[in-house]
Amino acid sequence: MNNRRRVLTALKHQQPDVVPYDIRFTEPARAKMAEYYGDPDFEDKLGNCFTWFRPHPNDVRYVSVGPDIWEDEFGVRWNRSIDKDIGVPCNKLIGPENIDDFQWPDPDDPTRYDFIDKAIPGAKDNAILASLGFALFERAWTLVGMEELLMYMLTEKDFVNQLFDKILQYNLGIIERACSLDIDIFRFGDDWGQQRGLIMGIYLWGEFIKPRIKKMYELVKSKGRYVMIHCCGKIDGILPELIECGLDIFNPFQPEVMNVYEIKERYGGRLSFYGGISIQKTLPYGTVDEVKDEVKRLLERIGEKGGYIASPSHDIPADAKVENVAAMIEVLREQS
Fold first, then answer.
1. Which alpha helices (H) appear in the chain, and where do they start and end?
2. Buried b vs exposed e over 242-251: b needs ≥16 C-beta within 10 Å?
3. Is the pLDDT of residue 118 over 90?
4. Angle, nearest 10°, between helix axes 137-144 and 157-178?
5. Rounded to the nearest 10 degrees, how much is the dihedral formed by the CA atoms of 179, 3, 311, 286?
6. For 74-79, what is the mean pLDDT?
């Protein structure tokens, strides 16, 4: 099997020859591993099973507008003085008073998709994944402010509905165009969770978020593509509702906040999982032997009968020990 066939076999809940995997890094972790291997191009040799694309105009996600300040296509400015990968929003663009005046980016801008279409033929041995980050709740709070959005969800419901509907329409345009290309998976990035549950609570999630993600997932499914969500935190309580909405793949599958083996047993016939290798405990604090044992156990138990993409439970952070990361890579690459 090539990598794409391994992924598609696993997503059909069938057993591939080996469990497919995908390993991604934060900038500091990438630099540490490049030094460890003595190879700045080490990622090209990992055997990752996915090729990722993001539909940004001219393939540009952020533009530098000042020292450690980067701006996205919506006009949100991100302070990267501490977090060098994404940063922290440092401006607020929308409120109830000006939502009708805000100029939204154009989802039909052809430069979002040209580079993807041209690059796909060279990536045929991998599964092709199109990723839309900040897909709904995250996009809303980056524009409005986190605290403000959470308060508005109680006090300014008409405004929040209007805001979410505008984001939804933008997203549907992106989905329509991206899924017309030869991709396998459409990934949504939208963190709703923290370590103990949903940030906004189950009722507000059901009121504002569920009906809109259902529309997005339905459009992806109508194009014959798989639906994936990246959502950090303890959100296992809503997995049945996500399955109902059409979800196929759940990521990052955090072992620190959910029992991944119980989740696999309960939902493994209806849902595939992507992640599961601990970045909060094992990779930064474990031993090499503990890392190898954890990865082998996940491959055997979660990977049984398909439905699993092995991966760290997020991009590998700076505090992960290089020898532990190397041990994880070794186990994944040497599956028999």
1. 3-11, 27-37, 114-119, 137-144, 146-155, 157-178, 201-204, 210-222, 239-245, 260-267, 282-285, 288-301, 322-333
2. beebbbbbbb
3. no
4. 120
5. -170
6. 97
Tokens of 221: 């499914």
Count Cβ atoms below 10 Å from residue 10 Cβ, excluding itself: 27
Q: Helix (H, G, I), strand (E, B), or coil: what is residue 193?
A: strand
Kindly state the DSSP code that residue 148 receives in the 8-state scheme. H
Please name which of 322, 287, 253 lies closest in space to residue 30, comparing C-alpha atoms: 322
Rounded Cα distance between 7 and 122, Å, is 17
Tens of pLDDT, residue by residue over 317-330, are 999 999 999 999 99
Token reading at 194 = 């923290």
Domains of the chain: 3-59+106-333 (3.20.20.210)
Confidence check: pLDDT of 292 > 80: yes
Q: What is the pLDDT of residues 20-51, one digit of tens each?
A: 999 999 999 999 999 999 999 999 999 999 99
How far, in Å, CA of 95 to CA of 148, rounded? 9
3-state secondary structure of 183: coil
Residue 166 pLDDT > 90, yes or no? yes
What is the Cα–Cα distance from 111 to 170, expressed in whole angstroms? Answer: 16
pLDDT at position 123 is: 87
Q: Which residue type sits at 199?
A: I
CA dist 333 and 317 (Å) reads: 21
Under a CB-based contact definition with an 8 Å cutoff, are residues 263 and 273 in contact?
Answer: yes
At residue 107, the 3 state secondary structure works out as coil
Q: Which DSSP symbol is given to 100?
A: G
